Structures are given as C-alpha cells and as structure tokens.
Amino acid sequence: MSMETVIEINGLTKRYGSLVALNKLSLNVKHNTIHGFLGPNGAGKTTTIKILVGLLEPDEGIVKIFDREVHGDQPDIRLNMGYMPELPKFPKHLTAYELLDIYGRMYGMSIQERHERISELLELVGLKGREKDLIGKYSRGMLQRLGIAQALLNDPELVILDEPSQGLDPVGMVEIRDLIKRIWKEGMTVFLSSHLLFEVEQICSHVTIINRGVALISDTIQNISEKFSGISVLQVEIANLSDMIIENIRRLPFVSNIIQDGKVLNIELKTRDDVRPQISQEIIKSGGIIISMSLKGKSLEEIFMELVSKSHG
Amino acid sequence: MNKHEKHSPRWITGFLAVVKYELLWNLRKKKFWGMVVVAFILSTLSLLLPIILSNMTGQPIKQNPDYVITLNPLGSLGFFLFAVVTVMNSISGEFESGTITLLLTKPISRTTIFLGKLAAAFITLLTTYIILFVYVAIGGIAIYGPQNNLHLLPISLLGSIVSTFVWIAIVLALGSLSKNSIIAAIGAFGIYLGASIGSGIISLFSEEVWILNYIPGSGATGYIKGLGSQTPFTPGMSISTGTDNIATLFTTYLLHPLANVTFYKINMISQVPNITELYSEPLSLVLLRTVSIAFFYIFIFLFIAWYAFKKAEVLD
Fold first, then answer.
1. Scanning every residue of chain B, which has its alpha carbon at the shortest distance from the alpha carbon of A160?
2. What is the mean pLDDT of residues A80-101?
3. How high is the pLDDT of residue B4?
4. Chain A CB contacts of B28 below 8 Å
5. Is the terminal CB of chain B with fewer CB neighbours within 10 Å at N or C?
6. Is A90 near chain B, with CB under 8 Å?
7. Burial of A212 (0-12, 13-18, 19+ CB in 10 A)
C-alpha cells in the first residue's frame, strides 16, 4: 500500500443475519484529500464507517488505516483519528467543557494543551460562551457542532464524519463546509459520508459511490465527471459576437460543432483536454470580448442517479 | 516531528479519565441521590425509634454498647438497591442512549473503560457507605452511649462493599448481555427475589440448608449458642451465612473466633412446631466459605460482563 493511502478497504463484507450490508467493498482514501462517501439510505455507508472506527467487526475483507490492519479493539489506531457519528449522542449530565476535557485526557493531552485546544475548538464551532451549559440543554445544531469539536480535539491526521450536515440549518451547513475545507488545508484527510450531493460536489476532491454494499465507482470527482459526461461542451458568452469569431473557432481542430444561442456559443469538443486557453486566445484574436466561459458536463447528481439506477438493474 | 505524530497516553491517564467520566455520571443521577436519601431516612428512623418509644412509655433508653457494631445500616435489600442504582446504567445505559459510540472510539481499550467504570462504582459506594456508617456511629453513641469495638467498623464497611459488589457484578453482567438497563435491573431483582424466596422455602421444608450457602443473597440462617437471647426457636445469636452478610460474619468472627454455627430445621408441619438440629461448623469456616463464594460470584459475573462488553457491536 502506498504511504499516501490513509484508508485501504479490500473485499469488505458485513452481514446482519441474512442481510448483506457490505458486499466485497473496496476503496482507498488518499492522504490530505476530502473523500466523499455517497450512497442512498441503507447503502452501507455507516456500516463501513463503524468498521473503520472499531464499532463493528467485519465478516470478511481487509481494512487498513495508516497502513495498519484494523481488527478488534485497537486504541493506538484511534489516537490519530477523529470521528463524528451521524447525529452524535453525548452524556447529557456533562457540560461541553467537561466532556471535551475528559476526552482530551483520554488522548493523553496535558491540562494546558486541553485548555488551549478546547477554547480554540469552541470558538471554531461557535459554542464559545455555552461551554458551561449541560449538554442536555443543547439544540440539535449545537450537538452537531460539539460533535465536530470532539472529532478535531486531538488534531487528528484522519477525520471521519458521518453525515456532518445532518440537523443543521442552511447557515450551519455552509459553516461546516467551510470548516471541513479549513481542516483539509491544515493537512488533515477527511472521509465524509453524505447523501447531500451538492455538498460533496462542492467540497470533495474524491468520491466513492456505494449502493447495496457495493462500491459503484471510486475516483476523483474530475475523473468521474469526465467519464460520465459524454461530449464535452464549452459554453462561452461573447459581448460582440460575430460570424468571423464563430468561423475561426470552428476551424480549431478539436471543435466538432458549434450551436449559437444569442450571445452564447455552445462549443462541442472532440477532446477531454482543457482547451479553454486556445479557445480564449482565438476569440480575443478575432476581436471578441469574453463575458463568461464554463465547461459543461453531467452533474454529480446526474451521475449518481445513473449509477444507482443501473445497480438496481 | 510530524504535526500529527502522537504517542499513546499512559494507561493510568485513560483509566482516570474514565473514572472521572463515570463518577460525574454517578453523582448527577437523581436515582442515586434518591437512594442515598432513603438510606439516611431509614437509618435516622432506626436511631430515632428508641427516643420516640421512650417518650411514649416514659422509660429511659437502655444503654447498648454493641448497638453500632451489630447494626448494619444497609442490610441485604440496601446492598441490592445500591448496586442497582449505581451500575444499572453504567454499560447498558451507554448503549441505550448511544453515548457508547464516542466513548469506544477514543484511544482507550474497552478493558480500560470497563475497569474505570468499576473503579468509579467502588469509589461511589465507598464514599456513600463511609458517610452512612459514620452517621450511624455518631447517632448510636449519642443515643445508646459509648460503643464497644468501633475499631471493627472499617471491616464491617469493607464487608458491606464486597456484599454489594456481588450484586454489582450480577447487574453489570445482565446489562452487558442485554444492553438494556431495565432488563438488567429487573433480571437482578428476579435473582434477588428468587434467592430470598428460595432460601425461605428451603429453610422451612428441607434439611438441605447447606445449598443456601452457595447462592447469592442472605443464605442459610444458623445460630451461635451462648450468644444473644435464647427462645424455643432461636437457640442463640442468629447469623446468616450468605454473601449479603460478610460484614456481620467478619465482625462476629473477630469478636468470637472460636464460635460454632449450628443449623436447624424448623418443623412447622407437625402439630407442635419444633426445631431439629442439623449440623454445626466453625464460624471461621462459614466466613471463609462465604467470602470465597462472594469473590467467586464477583469474578464470574464481572468476567461475563467484561467479555460481553469487549465483544459488543454498536449497531444503532
């Protein structure tokens, strides 16, 4: 396994009685990526995550984290890992500060480290000023924020988040997405499950789509998008569009067709290479002024629906 | 050094974190404080009763220098109830509420979590019992005058803790296996009630009272001749041999090391009720056997609880 791979899952199978929750699932999560784990309800996302964090035992297959095989109760592996379950539950009789302090002790943090890190995290997740309240008095959104804070307490290398936006209002969802991007920039690897496709599309670099316990695809979002997009179309809006501009673009070797819609040109491409610089150059050379330019392909949602529908047969 | 590079915390650090986690839970449970209040009310009533009777009858309170050492403020039901309120939620409650998920994903082993929870139960009980015993001792001195053998109180207290731990082990085992606090409490109560009723039936109708020495609870009742008051049905000081009675067995043994315990069958069926002597054995043997059986139950049930916890999967 490459040292750059943080999570490696090979042939993972988990059964609950006669129900096969995971069926020879395989996927890799690379270092310092935000890896989305997508699937409909009951696809096996939470089961996979619970096996990763040691809450469930696999029936078959190999799971490795930081190049170490996960089996049974291994506290050492969890030392460098943060985990937030879907709708996290906390002891209601403790305050947020008490809970984070106790968890910090479990990570072996000194009193000063705990104090500094807890203050920093409470500020980060927006719970500053409420840390002395009993958790039993917290709202759903506050519990979710506390869930994120405890997952980041040990400044882990790998953060596993199970539906991190669940229960949050739109503002909270944006804040969580920004937070995930921030911790990724700090060097953490983030593995997050979600059924919110736009969320994954916005923040993830890699994605695995799972259904009925089987990984349907696992790659970078860009590669998946290219693979499923069919013809690439470049949409360009030009202020002073003329026939000469259209003809000059049509002569480019990688252009197969052009459809005009007012000031907008939909340029169908023969290649998957990024040819935006060449097309921009040609438009400017022909005297055109580009207002906007975007490469059109299938959205993750369309790809997801296509894959899931196919897997249902 | 890599920013993320970390070293495993010392075992004791994780253990003490669990102890603190559990102690805070124990001390903030309403049912625990309810039980403490009930225990204090009952102890207070037992202390006040002679004062009330004295006021009603006009008779002065008789001095009793053995009051404190012969009275255990908790008793069999007290041990059982304290065990239930202290640990019925320790493991099963965490599974029911879902809080176990985060606890099990921290870098401490399940064995450490289990031992931390046990240690917290021990500290909770020890503190509560010390306060209760001191309260009864002060009350006893105030009402019955100077007391003999107060130096044996710590032994009595430790014996009470061991007796409670038999029930704690049973409640924890049922909780770990079922992951349900109600099943743990009701199951343990069923065992307690079954053992109590079984003891009564066997004592009344069978000559095989020795069986009672091997079940948790109050056990068989024997008598030490020459001690205590003698009536046609109580040929001496009565003493129970069960795991709930370790404190009394210990203090009685320390005061009367050569005493023998004699067991009887009460014949209630004949027209004139009478008692038949079955067998006698040294108090030292009774004590040794009872302590061994208590530790056997503690070990077996704690092992079952630990193993079930170690292997438990978190499904919900």
1. B105
2. 95
3. 58
4. 93
5. N
6. yes
7. middle
State the Cα–Cα distance between residues B38 and A25, nearest whole angstrom: 56
Q: Which residue has the tokens 């503690």?
A: B298
How far is Cα A53 from Cα A9, in angstroms, rounded to an integer?
13
Record: fold of A5-220: Rossmann fold (3.40.50)
Q: Is the dihedral of CA B106, B111, B115, B120 positive or negative?
A: positive
Interface check for A94 against chain B (CB to CB < 8 A): the answer is yes
Architecture of the structural domain at A231-296: 2-Layer Sandwich (3.30)
Length, in residues, of chain A: 313
DSSP one-letter code for A134 = B
Q: What pLDDT digit, counting tens, does each position of B137-190 carry? A: 999 898 888 888 888 899 999 999 999 999 999 999 999 999 999 999 999 999
Q: Which residue of B3, B8, B24 is in closest CB contact with A94? A: B24
Place of tokens 């998946």: A224
Continuous segment of H or E residues that includes residue A12:
strand A5-16
CB contact under 8 A, A83 and B25: no
φ, ψ of residue A296 to 5 degrees: the values are -95, 135
CB atoms within 10 A of CB B128: 20
Cross-chain residue pair A106–B106, CB shorter than 8 Å: yes
Can you say how many angstroms the Cα of residue A172 is from the centroid of all Cα atoms in its chain?
17
Under an 8 A CB cutoff, do B101 and A156 touch?
A: no
- Please give the residue that has the higher pLDDT: either B77 or B120: B120
Token pair, residue A81, equals: 């890992």
Which residue in the set A56, A92, A107 is minimally distant from B313, CB to CB? Answer: A56
The DSSP call for residue A175 is H
Residue A225, pLDDT > 70, answer: yes
Which of A81, A92, A105 is facing B13, going by the closest CB pair?
Answer: A105
Handedness of CA A238, A241, A245, A251 (dihedral sign): positive
Would you kindly state where each structural domain of chain A is located, as residue ranges?
5-220, 231-296
Q: How far is CA B157 from the centre of its chain?
A: 10
Residue B85 has a CB neighbour count (10 Å cut-off) of 22
Q: Report the range of poorest mean pLDDT among A118-122, B143-147, B248-252, B254-258.
A: B143-147
Sheet holding A68-69, edge to edge: A19-30, A5-16, A60-65, A68-69
Angle, in degrees to the nearest 10, between helices B181-205 and B153-178: 120
Residue A53 touches chain B, beta carbons under 8 Å: yes
Q: Under an 8 A CB cutoff, do A187 and B4 touch?
A: yes
Residue A272: pLDDT band with limits 50, 70, 90 = low
Q: Which amino acid is at A176?
A: I
According to DSSP, the residues that pair with A208 across neighbouring strands are: A37, A218
